[in-house]
Design a protein that fits this description.
2 strands, globular, mainly alpha, 23 helices
């Protein structure tokens, strides 16, 4: 039994109703240590910050990376090739989720999250060491794709595990609040990546930027990964998983490795909801945070540095409301928050993109800010809503598979598809229509999902 948590008979806490719970759930109540919950949140958020630091750097150095790795192509082909390499990593994310997720349900969340942390750092660090196309020719983009594959494979087990880790540590009544820190880490990482990329592009000459400057952000991942590994190795296992492990130990059995079939049979509805919710979450997320810098510079001809600074300001605004919105999930429920955000994207995507197309600084800032504040409806709710779709014994695996299948098909491909559709049709409203379609799907999923805010996780006792 973990020294930082305790499980006590529910009869000793008469204020907690046992009505409607299974006999196993009526037996115990998990009492969490607040200091350990905070440590768990920090460790999970750090990994997410590192993942999105890489995304931020990659997104804001797209033109530079295209010049370094695809110099023989035209300017537009360089952008598409670089975005294609970005999307390629998402092809292996479901494989990583199918590998690390069930492993996390068998050997523990903490051990697997330590592995994914060091693999993510290694993949990002390796990008900074790849010689340019001028040095080794076609092997440069081949090695870039290989490093991105390592990132994608490890990331496949990262987000689902981090969500699960926080959700299983947090008390039921504050799961939304603590879960929102995971995406707060995303914004921190993205702002740091975008800020560093902007600093490099504005202070270095083209020769220095193409020669060595672009490497610096990727090389930073090495030390960050070692710090993250240390933090995660110092954590204890989650109370929910520890209880499963203790029960298996009493029976003198090891926890069985969950099979992919188990994640779908009996959980098919939850898996479908997961995929739909992740679709709207990631399409809008990648459209705003990954594609908009390219949209502003390549399609609208807006100064890249000014566009980046505006988007950094939008992300800082999102950070200010992220945690209060997480608490709002605990008060009002996930369904209402997610549903309101979906309705907002349906109604406001076209006006927001029209403002962005207007071209003035204030119009662009207002349009991006509107999309960013709507996106907070997802970033504040998904980390706590998604783990509650699945029971404890298959939570890590099911969430990892469902999340990464959806991200690979719909999220990570968003910048590439949006750019290709605009190139093919010439219609600059494609980003708005794309987000609206995703929001309709997400709204249907929010309407169909069971409200989980403030309630015990399926298969786990109440946590206070």
């Amino acid at each position: 039994m973990s020294s930082a948590t305790s499980i006590v008979p529910s009869t000793s806490r008469p204020s907690i109703s046992a009505r409607g719970r299974t006999s196993a759930e009526r037996t115990n109540v998990t009492v969490t240590d607040p200091s350990l919950v905070k440590r768990a949140v920090k460790a999970a958020a750090l990994g997410n910050a590192m993942e999105w630091f890489d995304f931020g750097v990659y997104g804001y150095l797209t033109a530079t990376l295209g010049h370094v790795f695809f110099p023989t192509a035209s300017s537009s082909a360089q952008v598409l090739s670089t975005l294609g390499t970005f999307a390629a990593a998402f092809l292996v994310r479901p494989i990583g989720g199918a590998f690390f997720g069930p492993l996390g349900d068998r050997i523990g969340r903490q051990k697997v999250l330590a592995i994914t942390m060091i693999m993510m750092a290694a993949g990002t660090f390796a990008i900074g060491l790849i010689p340019s196309y001028d040095t080794i020719g076609v092997w440069a983009p081949v090695l870039l794709i290989a490093a991105r594959m390592v990132q994608g494979f490890s990331t496949g087990g990262e987000y689902g595990g981090a969500c699960t880790f926080i959700a299983e540590y947090a008390p039921d009544k504050r799961r939304g609040f603590f879960g929102s820190f995971l995406e707060f880490g995303t914004l921190v990482g993205y702002v740091a990546g975008a800020g560093l990329a902007t600093l490099l592009t504005t202070t270095l000459s083209d020769g220095d930027l193409y020669g060595w400057g672009w490497r610096l952000p990727f090389l930073i991942a090495g030390p960050i990964g070692l710090v993250g590994l240390y933090v995660r190795m110092k954590l204890e296992e989650t109370p929910a998983f520890q209880q499963l492990a203790d029960e298996a130990e009493k029976k003198q059995k090891a926890l069985p490795k969950p099979k992919l079939r188990e994640m779908f049979v009996g959980n098919g509805g939850a898996m479908a909801l997961c995929i739909a919710l992740v679709l709207v979450f990631n399409v809008t997320d990648y459209m705003l945070l990954s594609y908009m810098p390219t949209f502003l510079s390549e399609e609208l001809g807006y100064d890249a540095t000014h566009g980046t600074l505006i988007l950094i300001g939008v992300m800082l605004l999102m950070m200010c409301v992220q945690i209060p919105m997480g608490a709002a999930n605990d008060r009002f429920g996930h369904r209402k928050v997610i549903g309101a955000a979906c309705a907002g994207f349906v109604l406001l995507s076209v006006p927001a993109v029209l403002l962005i197309r207007a071209g003035s600084t204030w119009a662009i800032a207002l349009g991006l800010a509107a999309l960013g504040l709507l996106l907070v409806g997802f970033t504040s709710s998904m980390p706590s809503a998604l783990p509650a779709l699945f029971p404890t014994k298959v939570r890590y695996g099911s969430l990892s598979v469902g999340f990464n299948v959806s991200v690979s098909l719909f999220g990570g491909t968003t910048p590439l598809i949006a750019a290709a559709l605009i190139a093919g049709t010439g219609n600059l409203m494609i980003p708005a229509y794309y987000m609206m379609a995703a929001a309709i799907i997400g709204g249907i999923a929010a309407w169909r999902m069971r409200e989980s805010a403030g309630k015990p996780l399926p298969g786990s006792p109440p946590a206070v």
